[in-house]
Amino acid sequence: MAMQHPRLLLLGTGGTIAGTAPESTQLNRYAAGVIAAEGLLDALPELALLAEIQVEQIANVDSADLGFSHWRSLVERIRQSLAADPGLAGVVITHGTNTLEETAWLLHLLIDDPRPVVLVGAMRPASALSADGPLNLYQAVQVAISAEARGRGVLVVMDGQIHCARAVSKRATQGVGAFHSSGRGPLGWVDDLGVHLPEVERSEPALFAGLSLPRVWPQVVILHGCVEPPQALIPALLSAGVQGLVFTGTGAGQLSVVERDALAQWDGQPPLMLRANRCGSGPVHRCEDHAKLGLLPAGDLSPQKARVLLLLALMAGDDRNALAARLKTLSG
């Protein structure tokens, strides 16, 4: 009797892993999102020895061009598949690296299921010498079908390392080791001997597990802290009716006097606002001077992940107190 392999769903969204260039030595000039997800599978026959894989194409774009509609489609398809098929082992998503960490965090907050959802990409196009995409994809499937990955939340597999959605970020423009988990390191690793997740780590809860995603999403803007920021920018955004602001503060999330004065002088209803930092790692704690202006600390979330949280909070109808409670849950 033939051995039955685990069943997986592979969702393709494009990116460098599906990219090609005219020459095998071109690593910077290439077109992302050229090869269909089915083609990635065909080029990697070794996967047939691991799992029975169903392939669907959600998008085929550079991840810098992903939109809210793509996110909505991903969430709906993953929820539908997991709910309809109890025998499905997990989900793998091929994704461009530029915004992979945001998609991973969004899915982590929305998908409430112990089965692994694993995102994977590549730093070199599929046409390159020593392309990293095939091995990354193979290892992502290894993780997605493993018992060790269950209950860990959404994961990212790159360069043999297994990262949690909350901590992972792309920290370099080149090189196969571009992804890091600031402050905690990767959860584990994967190689030809299997999946190694030695530490049992509590996964952050899916804070928005029951949330339905609208077709029109709120406007949430990230502002980057710098020396003497433009004085007119914040009043213009507030007057335009943005619903959320994420400040990428200097140091431990500090706003300049220009930014603080702009918020203090605004006489309308303030939007939901979070303070992150531009340092790349380290927490942002509560500051009373900033709290009086309506700003909440984003903890160790990067600005882009703080924006994802804020988007979902606005969709859920959170006020500042409700958002503060969600942040407290994340801080554990």
Walk me through this protein's architecture.
This protein has helices spanning 37-42, 68-84, 100-110, 133-144, 233-240, 257-265, 288-291, 303-315, 320-331, and strands at residues 7-14, 52-61, 88-94, 117-120, 154-158, 161-164, 168-170, 179-181, 188-191, 194-196, 220-224, 244-249, 272-277, 295-297. The N and C termini lie far apart (48 Å). The longest helix has 17 residues, at 68-84. It is built from 9 helices and 14 strands. With 332 residues, the chain is an alpha/beta fold. The strands form 3 sheets. It has an 8-stranded mixed sheet. The chain has a 4-stranded parallel sheet with strand order 11-12-13-14, covered by helices on one side. Strands 7-8 form a two-stranded antiparallel sheet. The mean pLDDT is 95. The chain folds into 2 domains: 7-196, L-asparaginase, N-terminal domain (Rossmann fold, 3-Layer(aba) Sandwich), CATH 3.40.50.1170; 220-331, Rossmann fold.
Keywords:
alpha/beta, Rossmann fold, four-stranded parallel β-sheet, 2 domains, 332 residues, eight-stranded mixed β-sheet, 9 helices, single chain, 21% strand, 28% helix
Tally of helical runs? 9
Strand content: 15-25%
Question: What is the CATH fold-level name of the largest domain?
Answer: Rossmann fold
The rough form would be described as globular
Q: What summary fits the major beta sheet?
A: 8 strands, mixed
Overall mean pLDDT stands at 95
CATH superfamily of the largest domain: L-asparaginase, N-terminal domain
Percent helix range: 25-40%
Strand order of the largest sheet: 2-1-3-4-5-6-9-10
Distance between the termini: 48 Å
Q: What is the structural class?
A: alpha/beta
Poorly predicted ranges (pLDDT <50, ≥5 residues)?
none
CATH architecture of the largest domain: 3-Layer(aba) Sandwich
Tell me the total number of β-strands: 14
Rg computed from alpha carbons, rounded to a whole number of angstroms: 20 Å
Q: What's the level 1 CATH class of the largest domain?
A: Alpha Beta
Give the number of domains: 2
Please provide the ordered H/E string of secondary-structure elements.
EHEHEHEHEEEEEEEHEHEHEHH
